[in-house]
Amino acid sequence: MNRDEFQIYFDHFNNKRYEAVAEYFTPDVTVEYFDNPQIPDFKPITVHGRKAFIDQYKGWAEFTREVLEVGDFLSTKDIAFVELYTEFHFLKDVPDYFGKSMKKGEAVAMTNWVVYNLEKGKIKHIRIAHFRIHDPKTARL
Fold first, then answer.
1. Element of type H or E holding 132
2. Beta-carbon neighbour count of residue 65 at 10 Å?
3. What domains lie within the chain, and their CATH numbers?
4. Taking all residues of the chain, what is their mean pLDDT, rounded to a whole number?
5. What's the mean pLDDT in 112-133?
6. 23, 26, 37, 102: which has the fewest Cβ within 10 Å?
7. What is the pTM of this model?
8. Given pLDDT bands bounded at 50, 70 and 90, which one contains residue 40?
9. What is the 3-state secondary structure (H, E, C) of 63-124?
10. CB neighbour list of residue 68: distance below 8 Å, 6 or more residues apart
């Protein structure tokens, strides 16, 4: 997948068209989210399969609007590395969002690095590594 194809993928994501996002995946896709070493009992999330991905994001969409913006991008036939600026805008109070309590109207802005392993032009494995939290006052998406 090239940058233009990923831009379409992220447009589907930003507009909550999760079924369209899942069409970019192999049926047995695995998505691994970063852990939080600052919270000892924090359990990192791993999602297996298209349906689990769709269910996960539909659940999160009930309380947050997540928006992604592509930064640096590198790809070959079998792998893509994407720098993603991400904002989460909370639509209601959430007592535990990745180990932190969030209030309606609050935002989180961060940059993550994401590795996409590809198989026959589809995403087979996603690994999300956290890089930096930004001042929420700088949220712009």
1. strand 122-134
2. 15
3. 3-138 (3.10.450.50)
4. 92
5. 95
6. 37
7. 0.90
8. low
9. CEEEEEEEEEEEECCCEEEEEEEEEEEECCCEEEECCEEECCCCEEEEEEEEEEEEECCEEE
10. 10, 13, 14, 84, 85, 86
Helix (H, G, I), strand (E, B) or coil at 59: helix
Question: What is the mean pLDDT of the segment spanning 6-26?
Answer: 96
| Cα 105 to chain centroid, rounded | 20
pLDDT at 121 over 80: yes
Q: In what order do the strands lie in the sheet with 25-32?
A: 46-48, 25-32, 122-134, 107-119, 79-90, 64-75
> Which residue type, as a one-letter code, is found at position 131?
F
Which pair of tokens denotes residue 22? 């899942």
Tokens of 71: 């930064």
> Which of helix, strand or coil describes residue 3?
helix
Give the span between the Cα atoms of 139 and 106, in whole angstroms.
Answer: 10
More confident residue, 43 or 54: 54
What pLDDT, on a 0 to 100 scale, did the predictor assign at position 34?
82
